[in-house]
Write a structure and sequence with these properties.
Distance between the termini: 53 Å
Number of helices: 13
CATH topology of the largest domain: Purple Acid Phosphatase, chain A, domain 2
Structural class: alpha/beta
CATH superfamily of the largest domain: Metallo-dependent phosphatases
Radius of gyration: 21 Å
Number of strands: 15
Order of helices and strands: HHEHHEHEEEHEEEHEHEEEEEHHHHHE
CATH class of the largest domain: Alpha Beta
Number of domains: 2
């Protein structure tokens, strides 16, 4: 079977296909349309002297691919252009820009919430872990957990010309071996049933890194892990520490079309458990959509969009004694001026925008007549606005929306799922506690 066909499977597996991450009911759903450095007490003391305020960066779905695993040939380019808007031709430059920014700006913590690699190849993991050492060496605490693309991924491959070849992937044990410096070595506690752990930023700020991508129960919260979580939250409560939880998959359905394989399986009790012990919020990714969701009891989750898709952003979270503020920042990706692919756009930002927009436009060509370009353009504008968390920047056209309602049931389902958020900005949040 061709790898492209394999990558379109939508089962709840250990590793979803690269195309699938845009959403089962959007860009799989819409494909129907076509040396150890310890983070020690000295750093913790410095944060405490800032009145317990800490700066946290969270990035997710980086999808790093070793340059040695692709020649950017016909197969790879076809796969990228039929996927979900990730600018994979420049994945190393995007990742390097985040790392350089962290080295220069020195947040207190850099959280990477899964899908560290494109397809789980060991080579990609090895190179990515090596890059992260630069952040540790700058005195920044780095915390990672695996995503569904990272462990035992059957799609680990190298791409050459018009073909692919499977390469070695990474086991859970191998993940810990490569990433032990990034959260695990200094953890307050580690779960024996998963790669979950509790990290300490200061005595009064702890980070719960929840892994649900184990080899034996991918996508599901194990009962043993859930019990471990509660024990750790009790300890945090007794210590008077604030807790921020982190997962790769989501604890809420941020869109009614994004549920199966997006929301953590067997985890319906997590929000209530988090609220019971005063967890501030949950940080996740996985959907590639920048979105903030709150349940009826007021508990909040921020899902950050993929670092590899426009606007190539990450969350910056300022934690104070009585409040928390979060906003997104886009990577500053500098490429050589002589790069012909970028030169015509004027900037990497414009290139990434147009790449995502053009892909969105192409997805609905088969659903429209040649004369209905305005409908396709409207869809592309809405789609990029939704995934970037900035629907408030989209000129919503009710007339075109109604024309889509008459034209395509599937596109209508998607547009209807987000129409009530058409004026929203999902890139900023302020919490008081």
């Amino acid at each position: 079977m061709e790898m492209m066909k394999m990558m379109n499977k939508t089962g709840r597996g250990i590793c979803a296909s690269p195309e699938r991450t845009i959403g089962l009911l959007l860009f799989c759903f819409l494909l129907f349309l076509s040396g150890s450095i310890a983070y020690g007490d000295e750093n913790k003391k410095e944060i405490q002297e800032k009145q317990e305020i800490a700066t946290i960066w969270q990035a997710s779905d980086l999808h790093y691919l070793s340059p040695s695993l692709t020649d950017h040939g016909a197969y790879f380019e076809r796969m990228v252009k039929n996927a979900d808007g990730k600018v994979m031709d420049y994945c190393e430059e995007v990742v390097d820009s985040l790392i350089q920014a962290a080295v220069e700006e020195k947040p207190d913590v850099c959280i990477l919430s899964g899908d560290l690699t494109f397809n789980g190849a060991r080579k990609s993991h090895e190179e990515f872990a090596e890059k992260l050492l630069k952040v540790l060496e700058a005195g920044v605490q780095v915390l990672v957990i695996p995503g569904n693309h990272d462990i035992a991924c059957p799609y680990a491959a190298t791409f050459s010309g018009d073909q692919f070849e499977h390469v070695e992937n990474l086991s859970g044990e191998g993940f810990l071996e490569l990433y032990h410096r990034f959260g695990y070595d200094d953890a307050r506690s580690r779960d024996e049933a998963s790669l979950s752990y509790m990290a300490e930023v200061t005595e009064k700020l702890w980070i719960l890194m929840l892994d649900v991508n184990t080899e034996d129960s991918p996508g599901f919260l194990k009962a043993e892990t859930r019990e471990w979580v509660e024990r750790e939250l009790i300890k945090a409560h007794e210590a008077g520490a604030q807790v921020i939880a982190v997962s790769h998959q989501n604890i809420f359905a941020h869109n009614r079309l994004f549920f199966d394989s997006y929301v953590i399986g067997a985890a319906s009790s997590l929000p209530a458990l988090y609220q019971k012990y005063g967890v501030l919020l949950n940080l996740s990714g996985h959907m590639h959509i920048q979105h903030i969701q709150e349940n009826e009891d007021g508990f909040c989750e921020i899902a950050v969009s993929s670092l590899m898709s426009y606007p190539n952003q990450y969350n910056v979270i300022k934690v104070g004694e009585n409040s928390l503020e979060s906003h997104t920042v886009s990577c500053r990706v500098d490429l050589p001026e002589e790069d012909p692919a970028i030169a015509s756009y004027g900037s990497f930002e414009q290139y990434a925008h147009d790449f995502f927009w053009d892909l969105s436009y192409q997805k609905v060509i088969g659903e429209t007549d040649a004369s209905e370009e305005d409908m396709r353009r409207f869809f592309a504008d809405v789609n990029i606005g939704y995934f970037s968390g900035r629907l408030d920047q989209v000129n919503w056209d009710d007339a075109l929306y109604e024309r889509w309602r008459q034209k395509s049931n599937m596109v209508t389902l998607y547009l209807m799922s987000i129409v009530e958020e058409r004026d929203s900005n999902q890139t900023r949040l302020t919490l008081s506690y």
